[in-house]
Each structure stands twice: as C-alpha cells, then as structure tokens.
Amino acid sequence: MSTTAHTAEHLPVVIVGAGQAGLSVSWYLGRAGVEHLVVESATPTHAWADSRWDNFTLVTPNWHCRLPGYAYDGPDPDGFMTRDEVVEWLAGWLDTFTPPVRDHTTVTRLRRTGDAGFELTLTDADGDVTVTCDQVVIATGGYPLPVIPTYAGSLNSEVAQIHSEQYFNPEQLPDGAVLVVGSGQSGTQIAEDLHLAGRDVHLAIGNAPRVARFYRGRDCMTWLADMGLYDTPAQEYPGGKAAQEKTNHYVTGRDGGRDVDLRQFAAEGMHLYGTLTDGKDSTLRFAPTLTSSLDKADSVYNSICSDIDRHIEANGIDAPPPSRYEPTWHADADPTELDLAAAGITSIIWAIGFRPDYRWIEASAFDGGGRPMQTRGVTQVPGLSFIGLPWMHTWGSGRFLGVDRDARHIADTIVAALGESHLRLASGQ
C-alpha cells in the first residue's frame, strides 16, 4: 500500500493510528470527500502480525469480520481465522482503497490551540513536524501499555519474564516449566498452547468468566448476536458498568473452536492457582481463590446457556436439547505459595492486561483512571474523538463486528462539525 506524506500545515482532520478502527474512519471520510491524514507509528494494521502468537486464532466467528465496504466472504463463515489469515484478510481490505497514511511517524504531542483546533507534533526519523487540524480522532487502541506487577523485578533474575504480547511460541522460552499469570483470553489460550506443546504449565487465574464455544447446535456468539447482545448500547446493557469492566469470557477458536476447560487441563497435569498477589526471589504467594474462581467461571458458562435456552423457547426455535457443564475436576485445596525453583519454573508470562497511556494528549478528556470520557467516541472537548475502545458504544465496539458502525458515527459527527458541503453520512444502526 502506498503512503502519502502531507506537507500542508493545516488539515481538516488528523487520525492517529492506522489499525482497522482508524482506517475505517478514514474510509468514510474519504468517501465523503473530507481531506485528512492518518498518522501511524509503524505500518497499517501491523499489530495483527507483530503482537499475536503463532497459533493465535480469532475467538469470534469469521462472519463477525466486517469493515467498511468489506466483509468476510470465505468458505468458513462459522470458523475462526488464524493470525496469518487475518493479516491476509486485512491486506485484501487495504487493496480496496488508498487511505492517506503517513507511516513510521509518531504523534508525540497533541494540544488544543485556543478555542478551536489542535496542534500535533509528528516525529519521524527526520525529526519533528508540527501540523494543525480542526478535528482529531485517536485510534491508538484502548490499552497500549502492558501491565507487569511492581514485584516482578524482585523475582529471581534467572527466571525469564515476558508479557503476553511478546509471546509467539513455546520454542522461544527456555527449557523447563512455565508460569502463565492471568486467565483472560490471552492467558488461557497461551497456557493451552504451551500445554498442547507438552510443556509443564502453571496457571494463576483471576476472575475471568468463561463461555461455551458451541451450544445447542450453534456457536454461542452467534446465538448472542441473534439475541441482540452485541447491539445493545452500553447504557442499556444488563449489569451496567460492572458488567463492562469484567474481563472477556475465555474460549478458543483453535482447531475449529472449542471450550477452554481449565479443570480438564488440571486433570491432564496443568497446575492451577488462584490470584497471584506477591512474590520475591523464588517464592510466589496466591490468594486462596482457585476454587471460587473456577466455580464462578462455570456459573457464568451455565448462565449464558440458560439465556440461550430462554431465547430458543421464546422464539420457538428447533434446536438440540439443553445441557449444563458439570465439573470433572476439583482442587484438593487452594494453593497459596509456590517455589519457582522447586517447581522447575524457568519462565513467566504475564497475561494480566494493558493500561491506557494518553499522556501525550493535553486535553481535559480523561477520568481519574486515565480513560477517555466519551459518548460513542465523542468527548466534551470539541473536535476530539476516539475510536476502537472497548464498550465505546456496545459490546461489539473494539471488535470487528462493531468497528464499521462506530466509524460511521464518528465520521458523520466530523462531517457535521466541519460544516462544509460534504454529503452527510447516514448514521445507520
């Protein structure tokens, strides 16, 4: 894909970030004839190739994959694309239009200029350039900084430590047992990857829920889509803010898709622990939460199945009979301590998430936790918008399924705010 370097000092719109979210806004602005620039620190959509492990697969069915003017049309809509297939699919999308991207350029400062407009400092290999714009869209991803606990530095230096975004395959790790910390989607799938490769795996789990891969003849996420869960506005979603703050349900699309059953892994030899709370040298300490965490995850699993049952019954859908998950393994006791050396653990993978980093933005648009205060991506700072955030509008926000709708809304808002003779985009859904 060709890139376009702008020398103009002022532009109507600057989009920071050329992932699928930022480029989706660009697609709509280009269709509306709005001059704009997309600034990308690496290359467009690079994170899919650079930050996913070798055996990564989507956890959402392929039919969820929709971007402006482009949707998955391959032979397996109910399957799950691998990392390399996603990279190829995105490359096909980028072949359908030419966004004005300035790559290998970082926005190191963004500030308001008077009553309206913004000034951005763009830094590349040749130095700094300043541009101004009327509207700016932040599409850098919701949580760019990997979280590693403060006590990690006090652990035995002979134990290798990496974050989940740095993991690619078992072979990159030293011989010996591996501790994975975190039971969200990345943690459980990386633990499975290591387990299937024959590694001795220890897994510290948190409060992440789980979901069935398939239930009553269909993928659970297809049922949930039919039930409208991915289209429900955040303000109306059952459970409110508390539900939105929870870690995503763990499940996998590997080998055609299946449940992630930590109890079964334990029966096969994986070592499970509750929440990791502290550590020093070769000693780690855990809260006695293993049993309760497994029970809660299974409860959510069965609760979602019950919701699907009610949907099937209410709509008279012909489907296979209902069922419930019954535990096949129980911990004898909740472990509270682990000696890394005694267990032969030579590496730790931290899979405990990411945190926001908007320190380069000088605008009053963030809450006490550093997260943008926004409604459907639009902030109270005139001209400042965000795209690609989890729960920006619905559960589908931040995923392929919701990007198109969110981008249309942001682009429509921008076109209206510019007040020029551009065709107003239909708000849609």
UniProtKB/TrEMBL annotation:
Record Pfam families: Pyr_redox_3
Alphabetical list of InterPro entries matching this protein: Auxin_biosynth/cation_transpt (IPR050982), CHP04046_FMN-dependent (IPR024000), FAD/NAD-bd_sf (IPR036188)
Record-listed E.C. numbers: 1.-.-.-
Record's keyword annotation contains Oxidoreductase: yes
GO molecular function, one term: flavin adenine dinucleotide binding
Keyword annotations: Oxidoreductase
Enzyme class: oxidoreductase
NCBIfam families (alphabetical): MSMEG_0569_nitr
Name under which the protein is recorded: Putative oxidoreductase CzcO
Naturally occurring in which organism (per UniProt): Gordonia insulae
